Amino acid sequence: MSSGNRSEEAVDVQKSYEVRTYGCQMNVHDSERLSGLLEDAGYVRAPEGADGDADVVVFNTCAVRENADNKLYGNLGRLAPMKTKRPGMQIAVGGCLAQKDRDTIVKRAPWVDVVFGTHNIGKLPVLLERARIQEEAQIEIAESLEAFPSTLPTRRESAYAAWVSISVGCNNTCTFCIVPALRGKEKDRRTGDILAEIEALVAEGVSEITLLGQNVNAYGSDIGDREAFSKLLRACGKIEGLERVRFTSPHPRDFTDDVIAAMAETPNVMPQLHMPMQSGSDRILKAMRRSYRQERFLGIIEKVRAAMPDAAISTDIIVGFPGETEEDFEQTMHAVREARFANAFTFQYSKRPGTPAADMDGQIPKEVVQERYMRLSALQEEISWDENKKQVGRTLEVMVAEGEGRKDGATQRLSGRAPDNRLVHFTQPEQPVRPGDVVTVEITYAAPHHLLAEGTPLAVRSTRAGDAWEKRTTAAAAKPAGVMLGLPTIGAPAPLPAASAPACGIG
């Protein structure tokens, strides 16, 4: 059959897609690209809650968790009967688990049509087409990056906030992490390309960007410029219309004084820092191959707070790493008391197959890990609440968010993020406000994980970001039910979850 005949047959068919995302912000942003690729190829997004009722279902997987494969195969198993009943349905598996397991996926789930890796997401549309024509599974795993993924079409989940990748891969060798083996060595984008993307986003109405990298502040390692990241932050400060700049996740090893100075001296870089500590024990940090010790970590925090007294600092912590003694754990508790994090993402250690830590002696019994986890969580909850109480009485500019407040409808409130990334629920003002607009409020109450502003907002500022949200929403409402499907073409955030688990939880 000629390609021309296929195109003529395809134009009469409307095909839908669904992308399911697991894991870190890197995967969330990759899923935006997968959606962009599919829409560029003529697919239309399935309605919310489709739950597999789509012509193409894509799983963008994570390999960080021990049970990641069980979760994937469970979901694939539930789709098998749906695929039998729906002729022409295709299932694709990508991401870190696909990069790791490769042929295993099709052996365990032979109804999967496409398996693709972290380095070649741009091939998805053509792989789907090839699988359809050849009527057999297509497995394509590139061993290295073919093209920086930001060159691909992207369907961004938010009209007012956006991820911007500045690097991919990681040069660290943390013993608990498999990500460097799956995403490769760090590769940096050209600064000019990053700034051009940000400027284009701002021109479209985006007012907040988050710079994204596996080890974001190591940016510049390709060219040997240790100050490249701080220079990038300062360059972002010169982009007119860009109101908020964030980044995740930095590594303490590369957190230099020039980065702190750039954060403090660049007005649109927000007073927020998420920096993974992982453990407070020097002995465990060494076993993790983390290149800093407790004193160094706490010293960075002290410098950040001296430069930005209002900065909210968050972290990642692993409890129960192999060999962790009660004394080691108490060192973590001590570090948490000293650091006074605004919040912390605490994880119970679980084996990641393929990592050095999985084969280490001294694996901690689950009940011990659970007990320590509960003690640490209780301590951090208390600290988070105390730190949030300090916000009561403050006047804050809150960027209105979409989907952040689950109870907003019932409480007649709206929700958004303060400059330091704290979640704020506030009384709905009399005048209409849209996601992306900015509301000035006074904080009246603090809970451990959010703030309340119960009085009438002090001011409302309509923004270009709000205009962009309104334009997108209006266009979506007026859009026809579907678009016609042609042959695939090949390419060369919901609102940003500000407090979601950082990139692969490693940093």
Gist of the model:
The chain has 507 residues and is α/β, with parallel strands linked by helices.
Would you give an account of this structure?
The termini are far apart. Residues 1-12 and 481-503 have low confidence and may be disordered. The strands form five sheets. This protein has a seven-stranded mixed sheet. A six-stranded parallel sheet has the order 2-1-3-4-5-6, sandwiched between helices. It is α/β, with parallel strands linked by helices and 507 residues long. It has helices at residues 3-10, 25-40, 68-85, 96-101, 103-108, 124-134, 179-183, 191-203, 228-236, 257-265, 282-287, 294-307, 326-339, 366-389, 408-411, 464-478, and strands spanning 16-21, 44-45, 56-61, 90-95, 114-116, 138-140, 161-165, 167-168, 187-188, 208-212, 244-248, 272-274, 312-319, 343-348, 395-400, 413-417, 423-427, 438-442, 445-446, 451-453, 459-461.
